[in-house]
């Protein structure tokens, strides 16, 4: 749904710019005030922007969403009553719910788990991007995590070795 919205925005922008360029061309070729370099620049700029926007609308659906590596340095840990824990810190990059992550602690232990929930500014979110966030883990006990540990995407962890 988001891709369709972006496609429509680019198409609308392209149509607007092409319309402005065509109107400027018609007005310019009307001979009303003679040749003006500024109007020529306006016409060519609008037409180029219009073509660019329409091309973007055609190309965007075929581009895959890039993998954005994400990590979080643990600033605080809280125990949840039934099971699991909440980890608080600043997310660099992007972390998503149900995304596999590794937790590397100061002793070299690596824990592989998935993020069960994310809260950003007291609201549940499907992802956190470059913001302070709280991550919820059901399968990890608070005794397994320490302050200044690193939580990062599996792909990023595999890249770094």
Automatic annotation (TrEMBL):
TM region(s), chain numbering: 7-27, 42-63
Keyword vocabulary terms for this entry: Membrane, Transmembrane, Transmembrane helix
Protein name listed in UniProt: Uncharacterized protein
Gene3D superfamilies: Translation factors (2.40.30.10)
Keyword Transmembrane helix attributed: yes
Top-rank taxon: Bacteria
Organism encoding this protein: Candidatus Fusicatenibacter intestinigallinarum
């Amino acid at each position: 749904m988001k891709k369709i919205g972006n496609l429509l925005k680019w198409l609308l922008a392209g149509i607007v710019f092409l319309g402005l360029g065509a109107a400027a061309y018609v007005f310019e070729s009307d001979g009303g005030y003679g040749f003006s370099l500024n109007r020529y620049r306006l016409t060519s700029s609008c037409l180029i922007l219009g073509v660019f926007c329409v091309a973007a609308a055609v190309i965007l659906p075929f581009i895959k969403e890039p993998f954005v590596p994400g990590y979080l340095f643990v600033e605080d840990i809280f125990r949840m009553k039934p099971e699991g824990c909440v980890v608080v810190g600043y997310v660099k990059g992007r972390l998503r719910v149900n995304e596999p992550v590794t937790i590397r602690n100061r002793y070299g232990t690596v824990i592989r788990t998935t993020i069960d929930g994310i809260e950003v500014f007291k609201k549940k979110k499907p992802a956190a991007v470059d913001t302070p966030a709280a991550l919820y883990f059901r399968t990890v006990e608070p005794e397994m995590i320490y302050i200044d540990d690193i939580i990062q995407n599996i792909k990023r962890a595999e890249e770094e070795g």
